[in-house]
Amino acid sequence: MTKTLISFGHGYSAAALAKLLIPQGWRVIGTTRKPEKFESLRAAGVDPVQWPDTDLSPVLDQASHLLISAGPDADGDPVLRLYRDQIAARADRFDWVGYLSTTGVYGDHGGDWVDEFTPLTPATKRGQMRVAAETEWRGIAGLPLHIFRLAGIYGPGRGPFAKVRNGTARRIIKENQVFSRIHVEDIAQVLEASIQTPNPGAIYNLCDDDPAPPEDVIAHAAELLQMPVPPAIPFETADMTPMARSFYAESKRVRNDRIKTELGIRLKYPSYRDGLAAMLTTGG
Questions:
Q1: Which CATH architecture has domain 4-155+182-209+254-270?
Q2: Hey, how many other C-beta atoms are within 10 angstroms of the C-beta on 137?
Q3: In DSSP terms, which residues pair with 102 in a beta bridge?
Q4: Among 2, 101, 134, 139, fewest CB within 10 Å belongs to which?
Q5: Can you tell which superkingdom this protein's organism belongs to (predicted)?
């Protein structure tokens, strides 16, 4: 029987997972709001569906696995808003359900370490909405739910090189500001490993081994490109949008032990240095 994954909000991370699953004979159904993306999705082997404009109830009957990448909004989780009852009624038919959350749910820890058992104290509205969405998904009885809390995502086409090349990269300096990151290929391998060895109720942090100040990543990217390192700009005086400034409201180092001990993951890119070096060789 063909395994069928419905990918709600089929974006960057979900596409990396599909790249692993489709060669194994999986059917991947990816939702998008934009019909102009259909062609590229089909070229990748994904069956596109425009959503939320299409009723997905018939497709849910075909699904063995669900991946939820679509983020919550002010009205809650968009998937559960439309399909909570249908998903709850089919809960025991799914082999695996994955929800992509964020390490932002932990809030600010002043650069200290957090793990999956750290209390959730988000400092931003985005983090608060994610906590509410996680809680809503966990409230569906019998659902084989796995929650993945993703650190800052980077990879081909998404990284610091473009900004360094075009001169828009900035090294914003805020004392004791540290972020964790994860390469998109490592996200995909963790999701695949979880699908192969389900553990309903599990929560996993997805990040690499090397949390670092953001200015260090920009500087390293510039050095790899053999371009001048952008000048340092104090956070207090930096001209930033409210959204960009909000990312600096939280500082923490995220532990990833569970993906290694439980899922046997060996990170392809344990540090941003490894990831950026690989991206440079492929045009990053």
A1: 3-Layer(aba) Sandwich (3.40)
A2: 21
A3: 150
A4: 2
A5: Bacteria
To which residue do tokens 């990312």 refer?
A: 247
d(CA 55, CA 70): 16
Tokens representing residue 225 in the block: 């490109």
**Rounded percentage of the chain residues whose pLDDT exceeds 90:** 95
For the chain, give the longest Cα–Cα distance. 59
Q: Is the CA virtual torsion 13, 20, 192, 221 positive or negative?
A: negative
- What gap in Å lies between CA 271 and CA 205, rounded to an integer? 15
d(CA 266, CA 256): 11
Instruction: Determine the 3-state secondary structure of 267 from DSSP.
Output: coil
How many other CB atoms sit within 10 Å of the CB of residue 208?
25
What is the pLDDT of the chain when averaged over all its residues? 96
**Positions of E strands within the chain:** 4-8, 27-32, 47-50, 65-68, 96-102, 113-114, 145-150, 152-154, 171-173, 181-183, 203-206, 232-234, 253-254
pLDDT at residue 2 in the model: 86
Question: Which residues are 180's β-sheet partners?
Answer: none
Residue 189 contacts residue 182 (beta carbons within 8 Å): no
Token representation of residue 169: 């990269």
- Return the structure tokens found at 218: 């920009």
Residue 119 pLDDT > 80: yes
When comparing pLDDT for 245 and 209, which is higher? 209
Question: Reduced to 3 states, what is the DSSP secondary structure of residue 244?
Answer: helix
**What is the predicted pLDDT for the residue at 1?**
66
Q: What phi and psi values does residue 32 have, to the nearest 5 degrees? A: -150, 150
